[in-house]
Amino acid sequence: MSVAESLSAEISRALGRPFRAVAMREAGGGCIHRTLVLEGDGGRWFVKLNSGETLPMFEAERDGLAALAEARAFRVPQPLCCGLIGGQAYLVLEHLDLAPVAGRADAIACGRALAALHRTTGARYGWRRANFIGATPQANTEHDNWARFFAEARLRPQLARAAAHGPTLRKKGESLAEKLPAFFLDCRPPASLLHGDLWHGNAAMCGGLPTVFDPAVYHGDREADLAMTELFGGFPEAFYAAYREAWPLADGYESRKTLYNLYHVLNHLNLFGAGYLRQAERMIDRLLAELRG
What we know:
GO terms for molecular function: kinase activity. This protein is an alpha+beta fold and 293 residues long. The chain has 2 domains: 3-94, Phosphorylase Kinase, domain 1 (2-Layer Sandwich), CATH 3.30.200; 104-292, Aminoglycoside phosphotransferase (APH), C-terminal lobe (Aminoglycoside 3'-phosphotransferase, Chain: A, domain 2, Alpha-Beta Complex), CATH 3.90.1200.10. The chain has 9 helices and 11 strands. The strands form 4 sheets. A 5-stranded antiparallel beta sheet has the order 1-2-3-5-4, sandwiched between helices. It has a two-stranded antiparallel ribbon with strand order 6-7. Helix 3 packs parallel to helix 7 (237-246), helix 4 (146-161) packs antiparallel against helix 5 (167-178) and helix 6 crosses helix 8.
């Protein structure tokens, strides 16, 4: 069978009624997976395809989207099914007609939605399963201590992967990881449900509703999501004002923002190469200098 025929069969089984693709086109825009749009008499579906060993990525994405949907703060594409066809992994999602976050009203709606998402909390930091940040495995072993979780499940795995970039980064990074409790002396952040990979490319509007996708969910400090929105820009000031109005930030956010974004910069270093090395080193140096006073 062709890819379209195989996917049609899987979609039919998931729907419990016949679906036959009459058109299939490349969607584009993905840097990890092949993306398709399938159209047929039973609707339109967004499909991700990759080699068979990437099925755990799709299963994690499916579960993350389900967790976000349950929080009822953002609209998310509903996952229909995932599995293997002809040795390829696939994930079928509801197709959404997306529009950019444009204008003050959209920004305010997104800021309020993010605050509402973060009001959904867990008992511990982490999540019930491991997942992925981009193509990188992301451990979510649960902890009662946020600083310990961030050191053990976030910084240290990325520092270990970055060993090929020389001993200096790892040595300084380990020094920082040992000192993480100093950033949280006056606060124990709630274990908020986080999107986990909230750059502007993973947020949009759909039918006037704030919408997110491609998550890397876990329970953690809500500031980690906000920090990433600032790392690559793209969110207007009205977004942040609306968030802070709904849920003000604690003192010390600027320092913690650098700490949380270090995780993503290290991940980019490991995924895309040495172009991110100096940025990571500067961030670690800045954080260590702050601790020295």
